[in-house]
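Dear Dr. L.,

I hope this message finds you well. Following up on our conversation about the binding site, I have prepared a predicted three-dimensional model of the protein together with fe (iii) ion. For your records, I am including the exact sequence and ligand specification that went into the calculation, followed by the structure tokens. Please feel free to forward this to your student if that is useful.
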Amino acid sequence: MSIQSIQKYEKSVEIRTKALESLLVEAGLVSTDALEAIIKTYENELGPQRGAKVVAKAWVDPAFKERLLRDGTSTIAELGYTGLQGEHIVVVENTPKVHNVIVCTLCSCYPWPLLGLPPKWYKEAPYRSRIVSDPRGVLKEFGLELDDDVEIRVWDNSSEIRYFVLPERPAGTEGWTEEELAKIVTRDSMIGVAKIEPPVKKPV
Ligand code: FE
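The resulting structure of the complex is given below.
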């Protein structure tokens, strides 16, 4: 798909969304204020920065990490992160020998309360099919080359379960605060298509 055809497609989705919105408001089914509030939440509050806070906390607090891996949903709810597409979250941990990556082979299920809305490529057919058949090759295209002895586990999100990747803490971050650590955690590392590679610079 060319960039132009994607932009054209996005424009048509935008127009249809606007049309649907005015119909709902006109029919008195929703208020513009309510819609604005929902959109603001998705734009400003929901996003990978939440997942990053979970990861940073797990890196510095072993008891939290243990609970997180055992019962993701309620442990994440401790931080107030709940809601749509987060009803059942399972956290999978990356280690030097196991690399986890998430996908939704059927559509675009994604842990919204932790990562916000999914990137475009996550929703598209090539990623959804190829990450299952050739995970090593696809990760390589993302710039992530894993050694042959690293096991790759692909987790298929569904309407029931949303997986979330706990990336490895990079070397050289010893003694950093939770806030500093949260700033270096990327969205792609929590999807599993990237690592947080050392050396990392301490955020200011
Ligand atoms: Fe889906």
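In brief: The chain has a mean pLDDT of 90.

With kind regards,
A. P.
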